Amino acid sequence: MSDTVDVDLLLVQKAQKGDSRAFDLLVLKYQHKVASVVSRLVFEPDAIEDIVQESFIKAYRALHNFRGDSAFFTWIYRIATNTAKNHLEGMRRKPSYRGQDIDDVGHFDMPDKLREQDTPDGLLARAQLEDHLQQALRALPEDLRVALTLREFDGMSYQDISEIMDTPIGTVRSRIFRAREAIENELHQVMSGLGRRDQLESV
Amino acid sequence: MTKAHESFSAFLDGEASELDIQRMLKTMSENPEALHQWHDLSKVHAGMQGDVIVDTALEFTDTDVQAPAEKASRFRFRLMQGGIAAAVAMVVVSVVNLNQPNTTDVEVAKAVVTSGQASIAGSELAQQQFEAQQRLDLFLREHAEQASFTTGHAVVPADLEWVEASE
Q1: How many domains does one find in chain A?
Q2: Using a CB-CB distance cutoff of 8 angstroms, which residues of chain A are in contact with residue B59?
Q3: pTM greater than 0.90
Q4: At B12, phi and psi to the nearest 5?
Q5: Which of A203, B1, B42, B108 sits at a 20 to 30 Å CA gap from B86?
Q6: Domain boundary among A80, A100, A120
Q7: Which of A60, A79, A100 is the last residue of a domain?
Q8: Closest CA to B8 of A141, A86, A173
Q9: How far is A89 from A91, CA to CA, in rounded Å?
Q10: Does ipTM surpass 0.85 in this model?
Q11: Which of B1, B11, B15 is the best mutation test for A, with the most CBs of A within 10 A?
């Protein structure tokens, strides 16, 4: 399998040539990670979504300046933190949150459990999502559950999973996708409540 | 279609190949709804990773964002505009120079000759200028000779090859 950075760079190069679909894929891949970074600086869920969107728009407009010296995520990460900082300064608030300095939140680890939101609604939604995810995982056939668990919670590569499960990489890819698809089908209602657009559509 | 979904799933995990990218782009062209399905898949991935779930991808595609390529073409358009403006300015300056009353006939002749369109007219003008200059020299010499009979003040031509008019 190819390197992540190479694939991202390939998409950036296609987007630089005017293929907006390539940039859509990058947004799909990184939108939630960027939102996680922004959520460490900005509290309001609506503001987080606006800042994430603004960050990607800024990135798209400045894409011709991207030379590939750093990874795409590093670049969009910097744009997002600057956009969040500007937002906070625009709101005349201290550019730090939960006692963290804005420059100290650069790295984010992969938590073992779902990160809690501060609002009661957020806490409830997260708790519900976590419960449903666990239930959906338990309901999966064993081969799918093992493949997805090794990937999502243990962070293993497809190659490693392939060796552990003694199965071809193509099968690993298929199992992980089918596991995600099954969970999505099971949790569609719960998941759709977490995005702003779906919230608006459901009203 | 399932292959494209598998490709996207691998893409989320950083395990996609160039072939996967080509497959996804092709699917996006043929089936725009795929973006929504992939967005849902990305939510599952984000939920398990503990990331904050947003709908940016769907909102981004609805937003009218100026493409980088369009920006480049706008820059080229401005360059072209500048070029046209420079060409027009050059033509205006040339026309003004041609119509300047204090412009010497030699310069006018040169301009006409370099245009390459009226070389015959240019040579006639040059000839006329040469003859006019000769007449002026002649007048100045006669004036100097006449003036020398009455007073010491005269306009002397700055021509070193002074030839006295023979009487």
Answers
A1: 2
A2: 49, 53, 196-197
A3: no
A4: -60, -35
A5: B108
A6: A100
A7: A100
A8: A173
A9: 5
A10: no
A11: B15
